[in-house]
Amino acid sequence: MNVSSPSQNGSLLSSRDSYNDAVIKNFIVIALGLTINYINGTLIHTFRKHQILYANPRYVLFIHLVINDMIHLTTVVTLFVTSYVLQKINGTLCCIIISFAIFTTQNSPLNLAVMALQCYITICFPLRHSEICTMKRTYIAIGWIWAMSSIAILPDICLVVAMDYGKLFTSTIYCERDNLLRHPVSKTKRDVLYSIYLVVIWIVLFYTYLHIFFAAKAARSDGDLKKARNTILLHGFQLLLCILTYVYHLIVRLLVYLFPRNYLHVIFVSYIFIQMLPRFVSPIVYGVRDQLFRQKLKKHLFCGFCFKTRLAGF
């Protein structure tokens, strides 16, 4: 993962991109960010209006994922635009933005792994679901997600303070992870930590969804089997997109090596597909496809349309 890459790439783009290319790329990033955040905001508003949703652990985990995605999009879009407009910003502000970017990037696959476990318990242990998946345990799981993500950034910040004596936080820098967390220990820790997370999350994914698939197959219902298969494929695709952020810097290096003449465009396209696209998939997989949430969302949108129509009539 390299959440700083938008900024790093942005500094390269701002010095080499033509004016028209810079405007177009910033317009695309801002438009996508606002669109996805608007969709996610609508899902959050629908969630808040219906007790049946916010009293269910499944939807609490989903909305936590949506809120996390909104924070992530806001931070990475801010980094991207700032790299063109200001290029260098205060080290303290950069530290805050980078911290939120790393937190939210780490949270997404961990949250998806917890949702996979919750789905596994629902399908394979229906009689014990209400006993195991309580609201209290759901909020504890969310707390653990943030605690695990903190391992990826808090020790590095402490190392920066200890080595630079806080001088970095009073200077202006290009806001990228490698500029902020420059110590070799931080890079080594990142590679080791992300490798561990990558292995653990994929083990959880395969274990839970294989059991879900076999449970649906044992039910001997073609409809349940097809639904389980589609769910596994969609969730696996989304998780794959999120996990790509763990190897983002490797992917960019490979693509730049393969397409050296178009490396600026390659970096930008990689940024769109790896940093932004997964946040567009979440509402579709867990919101629109879910029957109960889709029903409440339609009701909310219909009521909003009727209210606007009445206001237009006055």
From TrEMBL:
Keywords: Membrane, Transmembrane, Transmembrane helix. GO terms for molecular function: G protein-coupled receptor activity; odorant binding; olfactory receptor activity. Residues 39-286 form the G-protein coupled receptors family 1 profile domain. It is found in: Membrane. SUPFAM superfamilies: Family A G protein-coupled receptor-like. Pfam families: 7tm_1 (PF00001). This is G-protein coupled receptors family 1 profile domain-containing protein.
